[in-house]
Structures are given as structure tokens and as C-alpha cells.
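Q: How would the C-alpha cells look for this protein?
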Amino acid sequence: MKKVCTILMSFLLPLFTSAQITITNADLPSSGDQIQFSEAAITTPVDVTITGANYLWDFSMLQHTSQDVDTFLTVLSTPLVYAFVFGFNSNQAMRGVDLSAVPQVPITDVYGFFNRSSSNYKQTGYGASISGITTPISFNNHDIIYDFPVNFGNIDSSDSDYSIVIPGLATAIGSQHRVNVVDGWGDITTPYGTFNALRIVSTLTGEDSVYLDTLGFGFSSPRQLTREYKWLANGQDIPILQINTTELLGIETVTLIKYRDSLRVPTALQEIRVEDLQLSLSPNPSNGNGGFS
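A: Here is the predicted structure in C-alpha cell form.
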């Protein structure tokens, strides 16, 4: 009887250890959360084409090259002007990366604004200091990052856009089309551990236009096709793993490898041999008290 139970458990165990999950708003971060993550070198060989039902993804070979913390803020903890613009449709903010979309126009102190609800998780806009002026950039249509509940086989899309006028200088318009496909479920292993996960692939296309008042002309350009591969797990707030790529002429290039992690403290210390210390005993002969020089 004991042998029969052992054989039965060997068949049933995979059913308990690998299960198809559902992601809801409870699995996303809240304002005030601080979440450790690591980044791996983008030259690390990774295959983003492999996926499916009850799949086992092994990324245990990833090695961190840097670490940081995602900090999720309340809207009220950002500059006051943003509270008036985003306070009614957003409940979360994150610091972003400084950039310069228009030549000689410094864009600093960037924030992203988001709203987490029972129906979706979406970006509502940006905030930035443009040439020293605190400027809210509210999306006319919001970018829906996740449509809840997230289940295997889901397909959804959203269109988002914004326009911003820099008085006496330029007008910038941006638009984006996002398509989300949940194309896999199973177990994923990273240096952080092994988790039941869903994989969602977001394909992003768009266009940016700039009209320069000072020169009296404008131009527009399509954005490079971008994909975000994300593995989501229950209760983990951010993706267990996210791999971003861009595509040009059918060739996909990795631009980001980011995974949830714990704080990694270097443990390898250079070995020091006693003979390398070049210690000598003094005085010689000893006076009984002893000493090193």
C-alpha cells in the first residue's frame, strides 16, 4: 500500500507544484512599496520565443550587474501641481529617467503616474521639469498595462496619446498602440527563486511628432517596435522577470533584463596570506610584552 501511495504522489506532485494562476490588482504594488530588483547584462543569452501551457522557464543563470529599488509614491508626495492634475485619476507615482526629446530642452525630475483599480492597471501620464518648469503631461487616453483579471489566453489592446505645448518653442505629440497577449503559464526560476507564473507579451508601436515654433516647421517619426516580456506571479508586486526588446528589420535586440531580487551583498573576499602581511616581532629579542611592526 505504501508503494502504491508513493507512485501515486509522484504523478500528483507536478499538479500541485505547477498550477495555472490568475493575476488581479491585489498582485500589483501599492503606494509606499519599495521593491528590490536586479538587472543582468543585455548580452546575456536569453530565448524569449519559448513559451506555452505548463511550461518550465529556467533563467537561474542570470547574474546581476546592478541593483536598485522600485519606489511607488503617493501622488501627494510629488510636486503640488501634479496633485491637481493627476489626483482625481491616479493613485500611484514612480520616479522616471531624465531625457531630452527635443534638442537643447533639458527634461529632468521625471515622474510616471498610474492608477490601480479592480478592472485594470494603467498609466495616466507623466510629469517632468522641462527647461526648469514643472510640467504635467496628462494622457488623453490612458495606457492600459494590465486588464484584470489576467488569465492565460487573454488578448487585449489600448491606444494612448498626449500632447504638450512648450510656449514659444515647440509642440510635442505622442501616440502609442499596445497589444497584450498572455501566451504562457507554468513555473519560472530566477536567482530569486521558483514561482508559478503567467507570461504576458506587450507589443508597442507608436509615433512622435514635434513642431518647432522657432523654425516654423515640424516632423514626425514612428517609434521603434518594442516588446515587453513579463512573467507575473501572485503577491510579487512587480514582474518576477521582465525582458524588453526592440525590433528592426525583423531582428529582435534585448534592451533590458530586469528581475525581482533580494539584496545581493558581495561575499567573495580576496584571500590574504599570512606571509603577505610582512609582520615582524619587535623588539627582538622580546621584552615579554610583545608587539608587531
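Confidence is low (pLDDT under 50) at residues 1-16, 268-293.

The helical segments are 2-17, 80-86.

Upvote if useful.
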